[in-house]
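Teaching note: in complex prediction, the entire set of molecules is handled at once rather than each chain in isolation. The prompt given to students was simply: 'Predict the structure of this complex.' The entities are:
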Amino acid sequence: MVTIPESHPRYKSLQKREKIVAGIEAGITSRQGLIAHGRGEAFDYLIGERTLPAALRATEAAAALLLTAEKPVISVNGNVAALVPEKLIALSTLILAPLEVNIFYWTEERVQRIVAHLERLGATNVLGRDAEPRIPGITHARARADTAGIYAADVVFTPLEDGDRCEALIKMGKRVISVDLNPFSRTSRYATVSIVDDVERALDNLIALIRAAKLSTVTTPDFDNQRNLSAVIDEIIERLRVEESGC
Ligand code: ATP
Ligand code: MG
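The expected output is the structure of the full assembly:
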């Protein structure tokens, strides 16, 4: 990996790029994952590379949903395995939810590599090796689900999800939490709770909220996803207006 000085104005962003490139070199992330990451970066630029107030409200709703779930599962793709593996493992330990490897550009080898990567970092409950096409209405590899994992889950945490799988999971009666920087994506529109934030910031917030909530009683906030997505878009527009006026 290239060493980037912390003083660089784009330090965090460049570090994420390095992680994605390292993920590709390690056979964990697909090359197409680079493009998905770039789409995310573009939205993060508009957002101002920080957590919007409405994104934090969605993260609070997500924390409550995960803490009250009976069978929560965390879905892991090649990008998040490269960007935030330790944070996914921490979340999995906190809410006692398995991690399930689920990738679009599926090869058995890449699944094995992601599982090994997570286990090397300390994960003890990783599913996905035995996943079979079980999600109705999906014709590509992400139809795969593990019977002990996503197939049986009531709440699925899916950072960087595909819109069609998100819709199919909802049709199966599951509640879906997405993390996607694009508030217009089909994923954001279909999810039960859409966190429009960078996956790293979202996981830091989610883990902190869950740790704090564990010490007190969990209340499910009154949350309307469509209204919250509109609030996200309003906050982005407001930020761009301020930028434009040079304030
Ligand atoms: P749709 O949900 O409309 O089907 P898509 O599947 O076409 O969207 P992809 O191009 O597959 O979207 O990319 C996945 C999504 O992940 C993009 O919308 C992008 O904004 C988002 N994304 C990429 N990197 C990050 C990141 N680091 N944090 C959060 N979201 C990200
Ligand atoms: Mg997609």
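Point out the following to students. Residues 53-238 form a domain with the Rossmann fold fold (CATH 3.40.50.12640). Residues 225-244 form the longest helix (20 residues).
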